[in-house]
Amino acid sequence: MGTVTLQSGETITYDYDGAGRVQSEVTRAADGTVTGTLRSLKVIICVTPLFKQARND
After folding, report:
1. 28 or 20: which leads in pLDDT
2. H or E, element range at 50
3. Beta bridge partners of 43
4. Between 16 and which of 11, 23, 51, 52 could a Cys-Cys bridge form, CB atoms 3.0 to 4.6 Å apart?
């Protein structure tokens, strides 16, 4: 596992199955909110406090 810092408006996509299908996507909005979707699990996560804390250090 690594650490990735998202700038405003950036999106990160992960391809876990190696066949070109997007399994997970994380986006940082202009207002600083970070949202992610794990499509295989149908779960939406919000990790805004963690990202804001990391960027304020």
Report:
1. 28
2. helix 48-56
3. 38
4. 23
Number of H helices, E strands in the chain: 1, 4
Residue 2 domain-assigned (yes or no):
no
38 CB burial (10 A radius; 0-12, 13-18, 19+): middle
Residue at 3 is within a domain: no
Average pLDDT along the chain? 61
Is residue 27 domain-resident?
yes
Dihedral angle computed from the Cα positions of residues 51, 52, 56 and 57, in that order, rounded to the nearest 10 degrees: -40
Position 20 pLDDT exceeds 50: yes
Query: In total, how many domains does the chain have?
Result: 1
